[in-house]
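The protein record passed on below.

***
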Amino acid sequence: MNTLLNIKSFLLVARTGSFSGAARELGVAPSVITKRITRLEEEMGAQLFVRSTRALSLTPAGERLLPQYQRLVAELDEIIGAAAAAERGLEGHLRVKGPTTLTSMYLGAIFADFHAQNPGLTMDIVLLDRSVNPLEENFDLVVGALPGTYPGVVDVPLCPLTIVLCASPAYLDAKGAPEHPTELIEHDCLTSVLMGNTWTFEQPPSTVSVEVRSRFHANDTRVLREAALRGTGIAVLPSFLVSEDLKKGTLVALLPSTPIPTFWLKAVVPRIKLNKPGVQELVDFLKSRMHPTPPWPLS
């Protein structure tokens, strides 16, 4: 059991990047973490971290052992959780990550409804607008729309997420409307983590990508919407956020002949957690509430 405790401390240090950061999360003194790592290194017969006054980094042995320890701890947690659930019914704890705007506006209600139906569970909902490896950051499920995936995880499609290029009439009156994606390099653009500074458009039979100039960046698309409404620049925004603005004319959709490819909102689950009590139930619940019709109005 002490070895397992030492391994968990190693994983926490690797994630936080410092002994003090790991100690803060566990509520112990940094010396406790130092002793645990030293004992683990003695058991493994190898140094796991390169320690210096400036930084802390994994040694080659630490890099090699990191994914093995992640799988080991996750599998043990699943075994213990499954055994307990078999005795008590659907109980346990779920740690879930969701995009900030979408969770605040729609997913939060879905998570709350799920918990209301499963009061034996406890849930930790974390709002983040960046790509997250659920295995590395100890999430049971991640909801997101960013492309790309990670080894050891399963991507479960939930629903399409339509993206709109738009600007206010005031901005278009002052700067003009682009007639082709490449003209965006001459415009003030508002960016977020969803597409960054490289915007891709459908131009059959292929696509065209443009590196835009960011005048205003935010990790919450509601902030970008407010900036767009005030004429700050051209923004790439989810249709659920701006559908009413487009209907009222306070924002204008641009480049309809070369639209932005549709994103897919997905649930990202570590493969070893698919059988965890509550995880599959939450995946099925999300699918039931989001497919084939998303929870937001369709424009």
User: Anything to note?
Assistant: The chain has three domains: 2-83, 89-160+263-290, 163-253. The domain at 2-83 is CATH 1.10.10.10 (Arc Repressor Mutant, subunit A). The mean pLDDT is 90. The first strand starts at residue 49 and ends at 51.
